[in-house]
Amino acid sequence: MVSGSTARTERKLARYSAKRLAAAAGEKVPLSAPGWVRFILRITGIFLLLLVFVPLHYAYRIFAYGSPFPMLFLRYTARVVGARVEVIGTPLRRDVFFIANHISWIDILAMAGASGTAFVAKWELSQVPVIGWLCSLNRTVFVKREHRMGVAEQINALKEALHDNWSVTVFPEGTVTDGHSLLPFKSSMISVLEPPPASVRVQPVVIDYGANSEEISWIGEETGLHNAMRVMARRGTFNMRIHYLDPFSPEDYRGRKAIAAKAREEIERQLVTNLGKPLRDYQHVVEAVRYRPKAAEV
Fold first, then answer.
1. How many domains are contained in the chain?
2. Claim: this prediction has a pTM higher than 0.85
3. What CATH number does residue 175 fall under?
4. Number of neighbours of residue 288 by Cβ within 10 angstroms
């Protein structure tokens, strides 16, 4: 017999799943009246954090370069949008190149809040009002998946971020997935490790939203703005775990493809452990990274 609380949870997940499927298909899912209230309250909360942390950041920069306030601001912003972040493992603090799977724009807020890392993220994220600017505070390097921005220019920006921030995160899938899949890793951004800068280590990272992964994820034809509104309008909070796995030296692997393969192997192993079942094929076509699910292949 199903308990009342379990039945309510299942109905709630069914409602969220229906909205998420519609959004992934490119449909605009209207917010309910309570949803608009929650969205406005969360936007107001972010604005209040801006009023506190942005002046502190620029005042600090008068006297020193490495301000801690973007890290704190992004940490609390992740909390305001609903994420309850649990950090598992120990992130290295400097001279580290994080390689992570990618599910949501919230990944950037939470990982920056946990470690202060800079990022390489898709250019579309920079066009999301507020969110794009928040990410730029932490020296996010935005790249276009269509490679209109030269790869050499991207790598130079990445080298500068690694030098200035001591840590950089890349999402080598080149897009976001649903938390149950892992795409092939694109190794172009790992070219910065050929040859690896002195003392730099690679640390694989697994992002996990648990039972909420599919509902939170930004996938399919959904726009960044629509996803941000849908997530911030949802009821309650959601758990998010960041697993920092054992770091390794890139010098032990021959080139960027071998480094990417090692990181992917470690991330896949942890994802399978978290899910308790094998990963599945990603079900959405992503032309920008030349990915098509087997069912869509001609």
1. 1
2. no
3. 3.40.1130
4. 14
Q: How much of the chain is in helix, strand and coil states, percent to nearest 5?
A: 50, 15, 35
The DSSP call for residue 202 is E
One digit per residue, the tens of pLDDT, for the chain of length 298 reads 445 555 665 555 555 566 677 777 667 778 899 999 999 999 999 999 999 998 998 898 888 777 788 889 999 999 999 999 999 999 998 889 999 999 998 998 999 999 888 887 667 767 766 667 766 776 677 766 555 445 566 666 666 666 666 788 888 998 889 999 999 998 877 877 877 777 889 999 999 999 899 889 988 888 888 899 999 999 999 999 999 999 999 999 988 999 999 999 999 999 999 999 999 988 887 776 777 887 655 4
d(CA 247, CA 159): 19
Helix (H) or strand (E) holding 228: helix 224-232
Beta carbons of 210 and 239 less than 8 angstroms apart:
yes
Q: How far apart are CA 293 and CA 285, in angstroms?
A: 6
- The C-alpha angle 282, 238, 28, rounded to 5 degrees, equals 60
Q: How far apart are CA 57 and CA 116, in angstroms?
A: 14
235's tokens? 């009821």
SS3 170: strand
Site of tokens 């990272």: 205
CA distance 130 to 112: 16
Range of the domain at 204: 4-296
